[in-house]
């Protein structure tokens, strides 16, 4: 007959309390200098920057950014960045401002709407799903 060994006791994990030396290394209050505070003045700065960017786009690409908005091609921000040398953030901010206009959303939701490039050449017919999304955004008050 085989002799059974007694069951081994499993080691248990315990959480050690932080020592005084560990807590002394963590600063109590951190300040972040590089990020501006959120608030109405910051939102106003963003809108002003978007308007300025859009005004510059209207001068450089009057066909695509004229007074009557046309639906822009999906991914046009990449072409815009190449043509202007802008950062991704600046290009998306200006396009986001333009694309939240009711006139733009109406143009996007119109039957048979086509998307255009920066020279206002049609590149693709709009899909029904995108038109429905534009209508929903208009009903919700834009962006």
Commentary on this structure:
There is one protein chain. This protein has a domain at 69-143: Fertility Inhibition Protein O, Chain: A, Domain 1, CATH 1.10.1710. Helix content is 48%, strand content 5%. It has helices spanning 20-25, 40-60, 76-84, 88-99, 102-109, 128-139; strands spanning 114-116, 122-125. A two-stranded antiparallel ribbon has the order 1-2. Strand 1 (114-116) and strand 2 form a beta hairpin. The longest helix has 21 residues, at 40-60.
What is the gist of this entry?
This protein is mainly α and 143 residues long.
Which architecture of the domain at 69-143 does the CATH hierarchy give at level 2? Orthogonal Bundle
Report the span from N to C terminus: 79 Å
**CATH superfamily membership of the domain at 69-143, which one?**
ProQ/FinO domain
β-strand number = 2
Q: Could you tell me the strand content as a percent range? A: under 5%
**What is the CATH level 1 assignment of the domain at 69-143?**
Mainly Alpha
Q: Note the main sheet.
A: 2 strands, antiparallel
Question: What is the string of helix and strand elements?
Answer: HHHHHEEH
Count of helical segments?
A: 6
Return the structural class: mainly alpha
